[in-house]
Design goal:
Rossmann fold, transmembrane, alpha/beta, transmembrane helix, two-stranded antiparallel sheet, membrane, globular, acyltransferase activity, transferring groups other than amino-acyl groups, serine-type carboxypeptidase activity
Length: 530
């Protein structure tokens, strides 16, 4: 028996526990990580930051046959009221992109510092607009081989859209069974980019489990999607009309494209050389344009190559920047610089130890894996949206208005195809007296919104990188209606974002008017305490 286990047994004997109870304790202590039980470890200190002022847990949960798939996660407890605040399961797009990006570069509580990098361990600071101010979030590395998630057998590395949805459902059930105080929390599933396909499948799988009375029952309320890939690859046909509207190609070329291709720019017939040549001309015109945000400069990339017209598949990195101690980078100028920092940070031994990463499971952490054994067996998730909204689940769909990868007009198109009635028509929403975007509310609890200035669809929420306040407010308003529907006396809230006003008690109504000119975060915390 190891010394640590002996000390544990002796300490229990000191307090008079019976021998049988000690035997059970001993058996549980004897189990190793290979038993694939739910593992949860508290992270008190992170290299590059220091002692954490918020609760961060990491761990693994085994799913699939024989629990051969070990999914790694980061859990951040809400800094407001974790007992009643929403719980969000976030799945970063890709597929194959780590949720560490959400934790440290998007809407999580930390972000890498804007500083000249000299090869030392990157440093981090607090994100004042973290979504964890008002919600608890599980950042999940999904599917298998993403981030620090791994498989114990080579066969278990093979997965697909439907199996990924099942794995996420198994994960959430086991996590909630191990964190029973969150069983009553309103639960939302969120994701961006390719997770626009993954998330509806996950939500449908959870809903099916609830219908079958599978325990634990999950208090599922809805889902949140940013620039979601919904119909693959047909949705990419909207890139050309979007580019024309943004002034990236001439009227003459646009007319030629319309004539030669008739709206089909992805699955071009082999004999239609005129269309192929026109599309090739368009692609050359877009070389040098940042397709994640057309107003931003092109940066030295460490991300995946562009998605191919044959399908939403990612390739290996064109080159991977080896961040060695001798390397010196200029000050952070764009999202790619933060991505480089994340590679160096996540591969540091002290960071891995602090995060409780199992040794020998992942040799080199890669922000986005291009070598997944992944089968794309779901191409269109519009039927999922139809079914989920019919069941009453809420959905927030938002798009950056300068994203060329998945243009907002493509998202508008498939939402229109649902044929839902319009509750509140196209209108602006405001942040700090400025137009932040436009929004439209439909029946069946669906809200669509555009976000001005910037957004990333390929791998992350670039809007959060450039202006986190906008998305934080949009996120807050979507969640804030949850508690206001049971007030005895209802007063219309003057929705400062332009999204359909919610109602609240007179006390909250007065508080809103008082807090309207205050800092948004203070206002948010006040509302969600109601």
């Amino acid at each position: 028996m190891e010394v640590g286990k002996l000390v544990l047994v002796l300490s229990y004997l000191q307090y008079g526990y019976p021998l049988f109870f000690l035997y059970v304790i001993f058996l549980s202590v004897e189990r190793t990580p290979q038993s694939h039980e739910v593992s949860t470890s508290s992270v008190k200190y992170l290299p590059g930051f220091g002692f954490l002022p918020f609760q961060l847990d990491t761990g693994y949960i085994g799913v699939g046959e024989g629990e051969q798939v070990q999914l790694f996660y980061y859990f951040v407890k809400s800094e407001s009221d974790p007992e009643t605040d929403p719980l969000i399961l976030w799945i970063t797009g890709g597929p194959g992109c780590s949720s560490l990006e959400g934790l440290t570069m998007e809407f999580g509580p930390l972000h890498f510092d804007d500083m000249e990098y000299n090869g030392d361990l990157p440093t981090l600071s607090l994100n004042n607009h973290s979504w964890t101010k008002v919600a608890s979030i599980i950042f999940l590395d999904l599917p298998v081989k993403t981030g620090f998630s791994y498989a114990t057998t080579e066969k278990a590395n093979n997965t697909d859209n439907l199996q990924t949805g099942e794995h996420a459902y198994q994960f959430l059930r086991k996590w909630l069974a191990n964190h029973s105080k969150f069983l009553q929390s309103p639960i939302y599933i969120g994701g961006d980019s390719y997770s626009g396909t993954t998330v509806p499948i996950v939500v449908q799988t959870i809903s099916n489990g609830n219908d079958a009375k599978t325990n634990p029952m999950i208090n599922l309320k809805g889902y949140i999607l940013g620039n979601p890939l919904t119909i693959n690859p047909d949705e990419l046909n909207y890139r050309i009309p979007f580019a024309h509207g943004m002034g990236l190609l001439s009227d003459e070329l646009y007319k030629v494209l319309l004539s030669n291709c008739r709206g089909e720019y992805q699955n071009i017939a082999p004999e239609n050389s005129a269309c192929s040549n026109s599309v090739q001309t368009f692609n050359k015109l877009c070389e040098g344009v940042n397709q994640e945000h057309i107003l931003e400069p092109i940066c030295d990339r460490v991300s995946l190559k562009r998605f191919r017209s044959v399908g939403w598949r990612t390739s290996h990195y064109a080159k991977l920047h080896n961040l060695k101690n001798s390397m010196v980078l200029p000050g952070v100028k764009c999202l790619e610089d933060w991505r480089k920092l994340s590679i160096h940070w996540a591969n540091d031994d002290s960071v891995r130890e602090a995060l409780h990463v199992r040794k020998g499971t992942i040799q080199h952490w890669t922000r986005c894996r291009g070598d997944l054994s992944f089968t794309y067996n779901v191409k269109n998730v519009v039927p999922y949206h139809t079914n989920l909204s019919a069941k009453g689940y809420r959905s927030l769909i938002y798009s950056g208005d300068h994203d060329l990868t998945i243009p907002f007009i493509s998202t508008e198109a498939w939402i229109r195809s649902l044929n839902y009635s319009v509750i509140d028509d196209w209108r602006k929403w405001i942040v700090n007296g400025q137009v932040a975007g436009y929004t439209k509310t439909y029946s069946n609890n669906l809200t669509f919104a555009t976000v001005k200035v910037s957004y990333s669809t390929l791998l992350s929420l670039l809007i959060i990188f450039f202006n986190p306040l906008l998305v934080f407010q949009l996120f807050f308003e979507f969640l804030s209606c949850i508690r206001w529907i049971k007030c005895e006396k209802l007063y219309c809230m003057p929705s400062f974002s332009g999204i359909r006003p919610c109602c609240s008690s007179l006390e909250t109504f007065r508080m809103f008017n008082h807090a309207y000119k205050m800092d948004l975060l203070q206002t948010t915390l006040g509302f969600l305490k109601v």
